[in-house]
Amino acid sequence: MKRYKYIMLGLITSAFLTGCSESFLELESKTQETIDTYFTTDEHIQEAVVAAYDPLHWPDWAMSQYNPVNIMSDIMADDIWVGGADKTDNQYWHLMMNYEALPTNCMTGLWTVAYSGIKRSNDILTYIGWAGDNLTAKNATYYEAQARVLRVFYYNWLWKFWGNIPYYETNLTSPYLAEQLSADDVYNNIILDLEGAIALDAFPMKETSNNYGRVTKAMAYMLYAEIVMYQNDESRYPKALQYMKEIVDSGSYSLVGDYTGIFKESGEWSTESIFEVNYKDDNAARSWNSPLVAGGTVLPRLISPSGWADGTDGHDNGWGFCPVRTETYTRYSNNDTRRGATCWDAASAGSYNARYQDTGFFLEKYVAQTGGNADQIADGDLNYNNNLRIYRYSETLLNAAELIVRGAGSGDAKGYLNQVRKRAGLTTELEATIDNIIEERHLEFVGEGKRYWDLIRTGKAATVLVPDSYGYRTHSWTTSKKYLPIPQSEIDAAQGTLTQNNY
Q: Are 40 and 31 spatial neighbours (Cβ–Cβ below 8 Å)?
């Protein structure tokens, strides 16, 4: 059972919630107080800050779609199939995997979730102005910094998946239309916003256990490096390298000795963890009718084998999505501890109902572990306790190595690379080349939503993401497929102000 406190996301005013109707989530004002008078105290602005974290949980299952961001990225890469019953099951996943997503059949849920997070982040900045002297300067700065980093985090989802998106830093009023910016202009805005948030110097490098899940300096630094490196913005590489070195030199983080334990419940918020999205099964009340209630995650059920006998090999059954490709398993050397920790060989451990694209391998990092939903009180499918790992210290080391090789500054790039390899049980040292570093990232982060973006930013996507020998992927990735089509519902609602992406 998790012993640290969670940022509980839900016990806030109903003004922040959509789709939740439980009585314990609804606060009725005894004085009919309005928003502009309610959000003028430190206590109430803290509620707004908590609300801005809430949409981090929603891609898991919200807006009637499964959109876990790590999986939605990886099915477009080369490590994981989509699976399910057939290619019409979660059809928009299969369309994304084959680079044929349609505006009328695409990932609409994540679009809505991200803009909900942006709206809530913007709210905080408005409320700080309303509070005036009711907030100390220190607290006002801390709340502002959190809001701005979260806003960039949500925009980062939109920017990477859709590129050319509406951008605003003050919430819209009727008719709720915002200018659509080019992907490059979106980048310029979010990187300046993030630089401004970091300059406020309001975060600790690492949080204490009662605040695990809040933004830290290290999390903001990792977000900065991710965005800058994806944009290939060489002018900011030195700053990104500086931030990676600050994380390393702080001594606040280190690689855990055993890779196989990182994704267990006991491995959450380890010395390696820089940022995670908290999920819990302890008294978790999330249900199909109330999917936005804070609680557990459905991801383990989604990606585990169908018809598996619960408890066999320490795993529970699932719905048969996202089998790991055979090529992913064979890519690891026999003595690489990441292989077993990443690829669960279910076919050798028991029996199940093989579904579409079955390989026998499932993503051990997030599959349903027996007992992982034992303490929920609502729906076992939705309430597993697996935290979603966003940034780990191993990525800090590999970022630093890559930035050094790319000329951002001096440092022991080879040492950083081989620290990661040594932890995986590999004794052969490699030279720090771009290809070696990218391949190490490939082995290190299967199922963590890194691979697809690495292939795009390094120019490898067009040669790697090509039709396969099984007939599952029949289209090749091209630069015209870099961005998903904007959901048609958003095009229609925009009254002619949105231009559709190529698709």
A: no
Rounded-to-integer distance, Cα 114 and Cα 112, Å:
6
Q: Which of 281, 253, 215 is nearest to 56 (CA)?
A: 215
Tokens 């003595």 belong to 335
The answer to whether 482 and 498 have CB atoms below 8 angstroms apart is: no
Closest C-alpha to 240, from 404, 437, 439: 404
* Spatial distance between the Cα atoms of 79 and 253, rounded to a whole number of angstroms: 28
Length of the chain measured in residues: 503
d(CA 319, CA 339): 23
Instruction: Let me know the angle formed at the C-alpha of 402 by 400 and 405, rounded to the nearest 5 degrees.
Output: 110
Name the residue among 289, 288, 248 with its Cα closest to residue 271: 248
pLDDT over threshold 60, residue 452: yes
d(CA 236, CA 233): 6
Question: Is 295 in contact with 2 (CB distance < 8 Å)?
Answer: no
Element (DSSP H or E) covering residue 363:
strand 361-363
| pTM above threshold 0.85 | yes
- Residues 411-429: tens digit of each pLDDT: 999 999 999 999 999 999 9
Cα–Cα distance for residue pair 284/57, rounded to 1 Å: 13
Cβ neighbors of 4 (< 8 A, separation 6 or more) are: 209, 210, 212, 269
Q: Please say whether the beta carbons of 165 and 112 come within 8 A.
A: no
- Output b/e per residue, 424-440; b: 16+ Cβ within 10 A: bebeeeeebeeebbbeb
Report d(CA 308, CA 289) in Å as an integer.
Answer: 26
User: How far apart (Å, rounded) are the C-alpha atoms in residues 153 and 117?
Assistant: 9
- Does residue 274 contact residue 222 with C-beta atoms inside 8 Å? yes
SS3 at position 214: strand
**H or E stretch at 392:** strand 388-392
Distance, first Cα to last Cα, the chain:
46
Cis amide leading into 175 (omega within 30):
yes
Rounded Cα distance, 413 and 68, in Å? 32
450 vs 340: CA distance, rounded Å: 19
Tokens coding 254: 């280190």
- pLDDT digit string (tens) for 174-201? 999 999 999 999 999 999 999 999 999 9
Angle, vertex CA 495, rays to CA 167 and CA 181, nearest 5: 25
CB atoms within 10 A of CB 33: 13
Check if the beta carbon of residue 264 is closer than 8 Å to that of residue 364: no
Buried b / exposed e along 352-367 (16+ C-beta atoms within 10 A): bebbbbbbbbbbbbbb
